[in-house]
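Internal QA ticket QA-208
Title: Verify multi-chain structure generation after dependency bump
Assignee: T.L.

Test input:
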Amino acid sequence: MTDAPLTVGGLVYPGFEMLDLFGPLEMFSMLGPERARILIIGEGSAAVPSAMAMDLTSGPKVQPDCTFDSAPGVDVLLVPGGFGTLPALENDALLNFIQRQAETARIVASVCTGSVLLARAGVLNGRRATSNKQLFARATAEQAPVTWVENARWVEDSKFFTSSGVSAGMDMALAVIAHLLGEEAAERTATAAEYTWHRDANSDPFVSHLNELADLVS
Amino acid sequence: MTDAPLTVGGLVYPGFEMLDLFGPLEMFSMLGPERARILIIGEGSAAVPSAMAMDLTSGPKVQPDCTFDSAPGVDVLLVPGGFGTLPALENDALLNFIQRQAETARIVASVCTGSVLLARAGVLNGRRATSNKQLFARATAEQAPVTWVENARWVEDSKFFTSSGVSAGMDMALAVIAHLLGEEAAERTATAAEYTWHRDANSDPFVSHLNELADLVS
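Actual output:
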């Protein structure tokens, strides 16, 4: 049996956090092009600045492969967080794109404040989810019927995988790979990336820093 | 005292490994623009495909901020590895750029097979260094007087910081931050990124996988 490669769509918007996007994509890329293909999807075709490049003359910018309108339905939709999340919450084209993809995707995954975008798009209604610890209050302030889980490295509820902040996206991506392709594929991926997989979704080493982290942005 | 922000130059070439580049850059970006600025540096100005985008019609491509010729001297030079390392070993413009920057940079750092590029450029002569475990034999085959250390998450020798494969770059980047800005800055960076810092340079969880990993590419 030769399955078609998984299509993994990485959503980008101005001010996305680099590691939220590229950490999980690295894990999928380790599967090789026979098993996973990556599409970078932006609102337009111009290079999209990461959070580090906002309001500066330099910093990482990524080139989209396709746009919200031209993108095919993907198997795995990956929504990063970052300080650009706040303006993105008012972007109807982006929220519509998430809604449309969520109807057909096998997995909808978010990292950090990416789950706030999923909540605003309405796709987490009635679901359990988590978010970044530094900005956790921003998630729970969202007017959507979502059960926010504070102590979680990531939360899996049906096809929705939401992770805690930044680095947690890599642990969640390995859980998605285990879910879709089996535990052994996830193990081999972690080893090839020389990554020590934090594999307990319910144990969050950073939940105790919640108040300290919130102070950094208050 | 208000120091100027550190300039962190991320070298990109076709086939660089995403997480080798963006993992360390994420850690520097967490310092904020007052303390660190990132420059993406490529041979030309066109977007540069990561390893996952090579020979495919899609995949992550990054937009350089400046070229080998136009880049200023940077404080920290970051050289990622990846399957694009092999052709890059024959790229004199790239090797000359490394040599030139290494003369004035405060830190020259590499991830994964990036250390093979440093060795070929001659800047590791007489130094201790490490490399990716899957392709470790490729490093030791290099005709340069370098002491290759097998069991290391990363190796620090004078201003040269070389890390093991892919994910190890994040641990090394935190060590560079500790070296330049103090241990507390590194701790806060790791916490803000919700990253469990593997802080023992001399303990490599993946050295025992060396032969198994080498089999994957043989």
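Spot checks passed. DSSP finds eight helices and eleven strands in chain B.
Status: verified.
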